[in-house]
Amino acid sequence: MKVYFLGTGTSQGIPVIGSDHPVCKSTDSKDKRLRVSVWLSWEDYSFVLDCGPDFRQQMLASNCQKVDGILFTHEHADHTAGIDDIRPFNFRQGPLPFFAHSRVIQNLKKRFDYVFETVNKYPGAPSVTTQEVVNNVPFAIGNKMVTPIDVLHGDLQVFGYRVEDFAYLTDVKTIQESEIEKLRGLKVLVINALREEPHQTHFNLKEALDFITLIQPEKTYLTHISHLLGFHEEVQKKLPENVFLAYDNLEITI
Ligand SMILES: [Zn+2]
């Protein structure tokens, strides 16, 4: 399976609009981070996790030509605001399956009501089917099974997803023991690490590293990164062995 990091930035992306912060002014392409998302592909299958406001740009940069479905972690705008741009896939393939918690589906129905319109729907509007994700109920994407991982982003429930020996967890602040058990024996873990300072709803770097020590994956990639974490090159040097800062357009094979 290929894992392509479409975006690795926190909600504002890097550079932040109007910011004079040195990381926002960096000329290193690894310091430019679109909103967080990954693309999983294997054989003829292709699935995207989250659909933030940079979705169109990400599909172009990665040359993604087909999407079989989108798995949502939660409803926040940096993970959902790109939904209108699924239309090229609709025109080529038909309705796109969305996998999400029932609360997230309800939220999308409210915010993107025109997508879900059943009477007199505009013919060019995006078209989707929905499949509810329920914790402790694995589901299929293509010929692989996905295990939902239930975590908390402050007070908000968020789903992470495990596909075989790969797990993707973003916007985590707390995780219960029962969910940690689902993360044993990973080859690759992707986990959020916002910055060094603590944050109310996100792991900071120390919390992410402690979590990695607990889970013991073979390799870990950090994502959902703020410009406040620092320059990619400098932060990477400080990380333990087998822990890497993800960056946009990084592709790994598992
Ligand atoms: Zn987020």
From TrEMBL:
Residues 47-225 form the Metallo-beta-lactamase domain. InterPro entries: Metallo-B-lactamas, RibonucZ/Hydroxyglut_hydro. SUPFAM superfamilies: Metallo-hydrolase/oxidoreductase (SSF56281). This is MBL fold metallo-hydrolase.
